Amino acid sequence: MSVAPLRGGQARMDELLTTTLDVLKETGYERLTIDEVVSRVHASKATVYRRWPSKSALVVAAFVHAVSHLPAEYDTGSLRGDLLAGMDDLLNEMERLADVMAGLIDEKRRNEELATALREGFLDTRRQVAAGAFARARERGEIAPDADVEMLWQIAPALVMFRWLMMGESVPREEGHRLVDEVVLPLARAGRPVSAPATPPPPPPPRRRAPPSS
Amino acid sequence: MSVAPLRGGQARMDELLTTTLDVLKETGYERLTIDEVVSRVHASKATVYRRWPSKSALVVAAFVHAVSHLPAEYDTGSLRGDLLAGMDDLLNEMERLADVMAGLIDEKRRNEELATALREGFLDTRRQVAAGAFARARERGEIAPDADVEMLWQIAPALVMFRWLMMGESVPREEGHRLVDEVVLPLARAGRPVSAPATPPPPPPPRRRAPPSS
Amino acid sequence: MSVAPLRGGQARMDELLTTTLDVLKETGYERLTIDEVVSRVHASKATVYRRWPSKSALVVAAFVHAVSHLPAEYDTGSLRGDLLAGMDDLLNEMERLADVMAGLIDEKRRNEELATALREGFLDTRRQVAAGAFARARERGEIAPDADVEMLWQIAPALVMFRWLMMGESVPREEGHRLVDEVVLPLARAGRPVSAPATPPPPPPPRRRAPPSS
Amino acid sequence: MSVAPLRGGQARMDELLTTTLDVLKETGYERLTIDEVVSRVHASKATVYRRWPSKSALVVAAFVHAVSHLPAEYDTGSLRGDLLAGMDDLLNEMERLADVMAGLIDEKRRNEELATALREGFLDTRRQVAAGAFARARERGEIAPDADVEMLWQIAPALVMFRWLMMGESVPREEGHRLVDEVVLPLARAGRPVSAPATPPPPPPPRRRAPPSS
DNA sequence: TCATAAGCGAGACGGTACGTCGTGTCTTACG
DNA sequence: CGTAAGACACGACGTACCGTCTCGCTTATGA
């Protein structure tokens, strides 16, 4: 769906992409209009369609553009410092991109490139930040050797995005830090629980039907 | 934007709403068309617009319809049993509604009724299931008295929805159970950490700019 | 290229067609815009495209509509009276349609329906008017029995259209009448010349080339 | 709108003009595309627009180029010979230009230069050929002194163009010669009719309305 | 001899119109 | 009266062409 940038006009491309992102934030994917975007930068529709074959491709490119920076790396000397730094970065990114992401989650189901952009441009960054921090912490003996890093890295983005996208609330810095101190760090230090309780899992509950059929 | 059901035709309404949900799952909010819905049930557009004033109202109603059942309540006698039962219910609901939710997250930003439906019909159910379970567990002394219930209940839905909507993966039952056993239960039992480390939080990291401007 | 008229809205169709004809007269085929037409009658493009598949089809229909009346028939009792009446009718029609025709002559080359409309709706009317007049005149003995009717009927429209379309002048009534009196009537009365001069036709002249190649 | 030939590249100009004429014949004015023309001669749009300021100017120039040769003059010694020679020339020109003319009649209404080109490059040639022939014939006493030359010269082009452009038929040489022998020559020899019949012209017929309103 | 200029191809660009499609309103005819 | 059918005004989409423009490349001349 993406298109090799034209020879000239790199500046024009950036302008189009950042403007697209602005409009996206303001109005959401559905209400975004190509005409609105081009009129803001005094361009013409052809200039857009010469680069991207459709509205959705334009929007995807704008998102890719927005998340295409080098993954952050923090080495503050302590696990807590690293995680707090990563959390601050996450919160900044969400502030910038939460509205845009909301408009793209549906599109992502049908657009492999967008899915890749989200994964590689955003999620992998979170994973790498956390993975690096945990690796250094393990060498320093700060955490249990069997800590489940693959689960741990997801906790912060999952909860932050849940709050932004599902609950519709922003997440203040202190909340994010509490999340690190009261959830991530304790779990990392404790490692996996000694043994999963032997009680067999209960039978699956009866499936619900959509309408309150009773 | 809300529903004014006509006297007759309750069955017709259900048919329209469930069909709307089907189309929504298949094609997403943006690509859903009223004509597609009505042609599937051999109805006419007027029949839809007599009941709901817009496409978004129809879709909201379909979602409300889908989540409008009594909140589940599980009392299995143990916290773990309750949480696992709640997790199974959550996983079932996600299986049924993940695609639909993806299509509505953007619309929710502009549609208060949809936001309410999501909150009351879906999230509050999760909260109540967990809150009840934790309350009983505290009475039984199974968990620390200062366990942060408001944070704890969010962990399961946040991580499950993160996996479904962000990572694009479904969550198998065993994974859900591991989440209960290795994250929720340990945190509940431990309660809040003795004291937040006294180290002052690091200064906020420099904000990133969108393009790799270096 | 034509389309069965929709059930309702015959009035709307007429309105669209006459407005199309107006715009056509004012601006010519090339500069005519669907948006201009629909905005004049407060219609929408879809209303046009529901009936006619393209701009050219609309314009053709407007022309067909404009020439779709019963062929005139004049029986004034004398050949001269009949021809003058036919001439007046021709001049009226040209006044009404000359600008339109100018815009359609090119399109006619590619549009069989338009060609048919021009032939049957306009030219055949001329032929029939003249043919009837000459037939009655021959019975009355007013003209030579061997008068070449197939050539005679063409003279009036050919010269009038030549003046309108090629020379860009309108033809006043007196000029038209002079044409009848000084060209058509004399030729009709004289019949074919006694014998074609026996001189063999000269050899065809050398073909010219486009550029003044000398 | 007129031509300002660049210093070099006369050959290029000819190439462009003749190619334009070709495309014009094939597709008509409206469908002619600058891109089509330049791609056929491996030129670029700038090369066209450096010479002619618009599509219509290019097309006009192509037509002017096509009709810009010295007016023919035939002096065969007899009126009939002159007229037949002129007719052959006319038929040749129509063969070459009928399609092009069809595409330009509409444009001519709005383009004074094109109107001039048609008049001076094509029509005046016909007029001069005929006028010369008739002048010599009058001196020789071959025609009536009061023959209406201004009307006579138009008959041949009017009828030939009528056949080509309105009826959509080509005109074979014999038909053209018949036209000379049976129409033009008899009228020229007879001169104006002795007296216009005294019958007053009939009242103008009722104007027709566009739709068959009865 | 080489530099300065000019025409050239290529094609991006701002516009404008096209023809299509979906929304939400409305009318018509049927049961 | 509710409904199926579908016409309608509106407005966005994605395409095509016009006329302008900038870019290098080539060529052709003049210092």
From TrEMBL, chains A, B, C, D:
| InterPro entries attached to this UniProt entry | DNA-bd_HTH_TetR-type_CS (IPR023772), Homeodomain-like_sf (IPR009057), HTH-type_TetR-like_transc_reg (IPR050109), HTH_TetR (IPR001647), Tet_transcr_reg_TetR-rel_C_sf (IPR036271), TetR_C (IPR011075)
Q: Does the keyword Cell wall biogenesis/degradation apply?
A: no
* Region Disordered: start-end pairs: 191-214
* Residue intervals of the HTH tetR-type domain: 10-70
Q: Does the keyword Protein transport apply?
A: no
Q: Where is the signal peptide?
A: none
**Which keywords does the record carry?**
DNA-binding, Transcription, Transcription regulation
Q: Which residues form a coiled coil?
A: none
DNA-binding region(s) in UniProt: 33-52
One Pfam short name: TetR_N
Q: Which PANTHER family match?
A: HTH-TYPE TRANSCRIPTIONAL REGULATOR RUTR, TETR-FAMILY TRANSCRIPTIONAL REGULATOR
Q: What is this protein called?
A: TetR/AcrR family transcriptional regulator
